[in-house]
TrEMBL record:
Superkingdom: Bacteria
Main location: membrane
Entry GO CC: plasma membrane
GO molecular function: antiporter activity; xenobiotic transmembrane transporter activity
Annotated organism of origin: Taibaiella soli
Listed name of the protein: Multidrug-efflux transporter
Keyword terms: Antiport, Cell membrane, Ion transport, Membrane, Transmembrane, Transmembrane helix, Transport
GO biological process: monoatomic ion transport
Length: 445
């Protein structure tokens, strides 16, 4: 084994995960574009709902990660019965979490009218939020089954279905948003139903594939013995899922709060920040997919108690992330005057966005390596201390530093980006040093 060969294996595993993540992002962009063609208020209502749903949905996604980690560990031990058991219990845990999130969002629709938004936008947003909240149930169930297939290193299955969701969702939007082929013109609500139906379709499709495909037959064959809810297993899944949810939620929440803070500086600063953040979010999908792939492979090796293999996978994944981050940084610096023009043609906005793109460029390296550090630690079931690191990185280092630079030192939006960079660098150093020390103790002990 070599660093290069391990890196190639991780990229092969991560590739379909990355493409699936990018497809989900594309679905959101397509929804926004189709809704935005009706009016700016419909687009604003869509953005408002996405903002309200973001943190609860991310918390749910974090919970599903427990499935892939547990399944990959059992798979590493060649224990197909335990794989099946984790899958069944994980599906139940994630489904209950999804129902809870959907209920919470439905009961909390009144918040839309207390966020200082245009009343017409809030009125449009309420029924859309109710439908989108309901769609989190099939989506998180789909994600939990996807994490099962990912944990078995069969990542292409869900990727294919994610790709198939694109034309399905576009077609349903065309029917329901605009009222084509005799369907009622539902506008924004039509986009919600289009998303709900699409998510139900891909859930049924993935569940069917897992139930009947020979690749998964050994895990289905033992369901009579292994498909039983056990509190010990549920606690084991929650041990990974809850911290993973908190990590994702704190990150998402920090960026949401920073956006609100920057919004107080004015529309130009907010628009420029949104451009830089959109570019960074797109490239982060690759880092996140690579981190998930590395985490799955580490968990598989952990199941075999193969610490030398874990060390090599970890090193190769971190170097891959570092190289990717440097590549993105160079691209952002080189294209910083051109990328903002894709989003807006206002001279002042584009000029400020070009400045923020420089900070976003440096941010790429810390962002990629901290995601990988957290993922590698999750792979060896070390989740509690990293959660504290993430909390400190965003809420003790990142946000306060950003506010200090933005307001005390009068740097504006650029100051908040310095805060991002400081927080992510903290998380990157502490998580990767912790992983290295754990590996060192295991190999030398």
């Amino acid at each position: 084994m070599s660093v290069r060969s391990e890196a190639v294996k991780t990229w092969k595993l991560s590739g379909p995960i990355i493409l699936g993540e990018l497809t989900q992002m594309a679905l959101g962009i397509i929804d926004s574009a189709m809704v935005g063609s009706i009016s700016y208020r419909h687009l604003a209502a869509s953005a408002l709902v996405n903002s309200v749903m973001n943190i609860p949905f991310v918390l749910g996604i974090g919970m599903t990660m427990s499935v892939s980690q547990s399944v990959s560990m059992a798979h590493g031990r060649y224990d197909s019965q335990k794989v099946s058991h984790y899958f069944y219990n994980g599906l139940w845990v994630c489904s209950i979490a999804a129902i809870f999130i959907a209920l919470l969002l439905n009961l909390g629709t009144g918040i839309l009218f207390h966020l200082g938004q245009d009343p017409e936008v809030a009125i449009l947003a309420k029924p859309y939020l109710q439908v989108m909240a309901l769609s989190t149930i099939p989506m998180l169930m789909f994600m939990s089954i996807k994490q099962f297939t990912d944990g078995l290193e069969r990542t292409r299955t869900a990727m294919v279905l994610s790709f198939a969701a694109l034309p399905i969702n576009i077609f349903l939007n065309w029917l329901l948003i605009y009222g084509n082929w005799g369907f009622p013109r539902m506008e924004l609500l039509g986009a919600g139903f289009g998303t709900l139906i699409t998510r139900i379709i891909i859930l049924i499709a993935l569940a069917t594939v897992v139930s009947v495909h020979p690749l998964f037959s050994r895990y289905m064959a033992v369901r009579k013995n292994q498909w039983k809810l056990k509190m010990a297993t549920v606690k084991e899944l929650l041990h990974i899922g809850v911290p993973s949810s908190l990590q994702a939620g704190m990150e998402s929440g920090a960026f949401a709060v920073s956006g609100i803070i920057i919004g107080t500086l004015g529309a130009v600063q907010q628009a420029a920040h949104q451009i830089a953040l959109s570019c960074a979010a797109f490239t982060f999908m690759v880092s996140m997919g690579l981190a998930q792939g590395g985490s799955i492979r580490v968990s598989n090796a952990w199941g075999r108690n193969n610490w030398s293999g874990i060390a090599l996978i970890g090193k190769s994944t971190l170097l891959s992330g570092l190289c990717y981050g440097i590549f993105c940084a160079i691209f952002f610096v080189t294209a910083r005057h051109y990328l903002p023009t894709i989003f807006n043609d206002d001279t002042e906005v584009v000029s400020l966005a070009a400045v923020l793109m420089f900070y976003a460029a440096v941010f790429q390296i810390s962002d990629a390596t901290q995601a990988i550090g957290v993922g590698l630690l999750r792979g060896i079931k070390d989740v509690h201390i990293p959660t504290i690191y993430v909390a400190i990185a965003y809420w003790v280092v990142g946000i306060p530093t950003g506010c200090l630079m933005a307001f005390t030192f009068k740097m504006g939006a650029a100051g908040m980006w310095i805060g991002f960079l400081a927080g992510l660098t903290f998380a990157s150093i502490f998580t990767n040093v912790r992983f290295s020390r754990i590996i060192g103790r295991k190999l030398n002990g």
